[in-house]
Amino acid sequence: MGATTFTYGMGLRRVSRHLVARAGTVTMSTSYSTGGDTGFNPVVGKSVLTLDIEASLGRIFVYDDTNKKVLAYEDGATVTGPLDEVPAATNLSAAHGALRWSSLGKK
Prior knowledge:
Shape: elongated
Number of helices: 1
Distance between the termini: 32 Å
Number of strands: 8
Structural class: mainly beta
Helix content: under 10%
């Protein structure tokens, strides 16, 4: 399985009485694994409400909080739908470098 490398760019920042925010960068793996890359369990308070990863080169990255994985999608990877998962073994690290991410969680 591919493993992402997440870096925290700031400590937990209180947004409101019950919300905290955090941000940083992520470097995707050199060999993407079907079903998502592992390696990130964000510390954003008690639970993650949202985690956004910047899109790059036509690819969209989605964080799956249940399985603690990052999935990568692109247009036209296969012909079965509008957005398809990136094929296994794709080197996302070389193509995208460090991507910014931000998150919001319950305090």
